[in-house]
Amino acid sequence: MKKALRHPYILLGGGVAIALFCVALLAPVLAPYSPDEIDLDAFYQGPAWNHWFGTDNLGRDVLSRVAYGSRVSLGIGVTTRTFSLLIGLIVGCLSGYYGGKVDLVLQRLVDITLAFPFLLLVISIAVIFPQGVFAVFISLSLVMWAGAARLIRAQVMVVREREYVTAARAFGARDFWIVLRHIIPNSYAPALIWWTMGLGQAIMAEAGLSFLGVGSPEASWGGMINDGAQALRVAPWVSLFPGLALALTVLAFNLLGEGLRDVLDVREQ
Amino acid sequence: MRRWFRPLLCLLFLAASACSGGRSGLFFVPPRESDALVIYDIMDPPTLDPARSWGVVDGRMVGLVFSNLVHFNHEAKVEPDLALDWTVEPDGKTYTFHLNPAARFSNGRAVIADDVAYSLRRALDPATAAANRWALEPIESIDVLGPQELRIQLKEPFAPFIGLLAMPIAAVVPREAVEECERQGVPFGENPLGSGPWIMEEWKHDRYIHFRRNEAYWGPKPNLPRLVYRVIPNHFTAVAEFETGNIGVVEELPDAEITRWRMHPDWAPYTGPVPLLNTDMMLFNCSKPDLANPMVRRALASLVPVEKVLACVRQGAGTISGGPIPPGIIGAEETVEPIRMESGEAQRVLQDAGLTSRPFTLLFPAKEGSVRATAELLQALWKRAGLDVRFVQLEWTTYRQALREGDFDAAYRGWYADYPDGDNFLYPLFHSSQIGQSNFTFNHDDEIDALIEASRHELDETRREEILRRVNRMIFERAPALFLWHRVNYYVRNPLVADYQPPHIFNGTRYLRERIIPLAEFEGAPKS
Amino acid sequence: MTSYILRRLLFMAPVLLGVVTISFFLGRLAPGDPAEAMAGQRATEEQKQMIAQKYGLDRPLAEQYLTYLYNLARGDLGLSYDSHRPVSEIIAERFPYTLKLAAGAMFAAVLLGVSAGLLSALTPNSWYDRAAMVIAMLGISTPVFWLGLLLMYFISVRLNWLPPSGYGDGGIRYLILPAIALGTQSVAMLARMTRAAMLDVMREDYLQTARAKGAAPAVVVTRHAFANAAIPILTIVAADFASYLSGSVLTEKVFSWPGLGSHIMLAISQRDYPVINGTVLFFSAMFLAINLLVDLLYGFLDPRIRYE
Asked: What's domain C87-301's architecture?
């Protein structure tokens, strides 16, 4: 723990990440305006004292939108990552612990998901569930779980053969108990790193969907960057600030992941 | 030289050149190609087969390669094309056309009346499954009277019929070429052969189509020997291509950049407006009990300061709408009186109707540019009046389905003319027989229906205009939709591209007059 | 070895079948059908039915699925609803562009990533090392489309160094910007791998041995580090290369690159099922093939690996 707190990547990444979560939680307090408050007389105003980050095409305060956008973007990142980790955990444990036919079938499912072109799958799913943030969440989760499942399975297969597990099994402990007691605690490190490192990927994927017109209808960073990108020459601030926020976030989580990898001493598979 | 010096120099240079925004005087890159006009659109046309054409992009390309009996000029007026002249019997149902004997397909064969009949019948054949088949459906029969004479009989009088014949679906194709393609199992749409001013030379999908001047063209030939159509899916990218001289004219400036070019002291002379035959509106779903009441719809409309919205989302590029029919065609409103209500009154009406106590769905298609901004703005405006506006953004085909199924309270709709007549903005959009097909207001109004029908059958131009004007105003007042604006696009051309004629209707130009001036002859030679 | 390859190929069949099945039914689940997309703005119900009939969309779903599989087994991917051209022809025509972009991106990524990693490893844990790593990470932290637009604006419009977009005459000038925009995604991983491999080697004994023998340390380090890093780098290159092939949609759209990615977006919005299914199948097959190839390469690079 001490080692962790001294690692520069963890300090930096973790600090920024915590700050970001604070911004997301405290958005209503921090944001000077409501994110949807339009001002038809003040569109495309450059950064100034009353609007630090300027205003967008509808005269909305970019700073407030960036603050509120963190809720959507971080929300999508955290929920997708957690949900796909959960699925991956279940599938990975079943697959790795029982092996045999269960493993064979589940692994084909993983193979199929991994072989399916990532972006195309996400786009198709986002088109099918056209109800905004939820669609983005579902589509990303349905794609991302496979990576987690493969990771967890590998861990489980290693742990399963360890002496204390074989011993527990010999004593007649229930499978569920063994998994809960021995296997999950032993695979938390790679899972944590997987969760952290991929958070940015999820946020980024949402941005990509926005660019293709199937992203979240609520103001996410990706959506704001895309809307603003068309005005890049006229009002660069509209896409610049959400772009920086997004870059900072992804960078922070990646640094955090790197740091954790160092500290927890997990090797690349 | 010291080791650190060179990178530093590079960096400085980079910064300086990247920041030097304040150049004075006109700065432009001459067109890369001196014998070709380069234009672009955001997608690859799906086909150049007239019968199968359904979109704007393919429609424009079809117009270059093929000829119709008549075609639109850039101001969307009907002009003779293959037909030298035509007569209409007093019953309004019988059209007789005389073809230009000089007309030739680009393979040298003369265009005869049989070709016209074949082409129209082919488009009407159910097996072709033509998307725009409706355009030819008024036709009862087609009779060839001689090699250069043709009669078209309508099912009933239809005043704007002649305009339908200028649509891409009515383009004339040579039978032998179509059948040859069928025999070889290749789509005719990939190997188009027509009697138009241009010949398709090379088509690299998703990259470009090269057209070469039809040297044997029987009409006035294009000035330029070549025309290049490029596929650029992103507007920002297209402007970058224009700035680097790779595109001769940006025919539709992206919304965000209109002011930047229009108001630029050096560029303003090279920009210009393109008034489109278009109406952007927000439909109300009149099948909802509360929205069935015109007062409620008027109240919703009165909450929207259209002029300000236009200034915001399209930088003022449009004309405020006084009804479905856009200016420039028969039946349009001349003076626009926006729907107004006392402040507080609108809110009270909405409250009494119970509209503030239920969710209100606002549907719009996921498209770039002003559409989303408009929807967001209206959401904000209606929210202020106490409505619980839910925002539904759908991908295009899904949006179409939602419209058809009436799965909305208000829905964004943009409509562009297929033929330049008020009828094109009334019958499909507001006649109750078209409900669920192209009329998504779900509004049954017998008075409006009767007037629209009368206008279709009326052959006297003055009386017809009067009817159209009346029904146009009636629709505006009863507000089955909130009429926003008629778009005006802005083009910007390379200063060396001369005589560009922007089309008001999508297939209204064949790029005949455009020229490229040699740099030496250019008056305000660039200061670069 | 041969039996290993055969077994791997055998395993591919169910995976590809699964991919086709998902792709097929995903398409049918989506609201809006091809008839809706193709029938135009004023289509009647009757007309839509006509279109549905023409493409066999009015048949029971199971029948359509089996027909598709039957045709697939005969090597027929069908005709595009939109352009009436064979899907295989569409893929064959556009795939080379996508491949070229992916290869260019990979080249850019390896170039940037490996050099960043090498530089970092020279002075481990210095601020210089950290900064190089953070900069390398910026690539995965910026949305591709935004980075692409920025590059285009500054490099092409302002500086006029490179053409803004398109495939042009196929020259390398047209490839540089899109390749950089796409390739930055992998730079961070590659940099980290290279750095780790370098550090491993520098700690080890043969450096001392080599030094004792009088070899120049830089040469030794580099040679051993690359031997050491080859496998992890290859893994990343392979995985990312496969994802570039199907994931270049955004880059292609920004840079008007005429690849498969930009075409499939149109196909999805048109509900052009044969094109969607065919492309998905093709990408998946490519993915599996690349993986197999990489596994075989491992054996070549590291004789300790055996194929069972």
From this structure: Orthogonal Bundle (1.10)
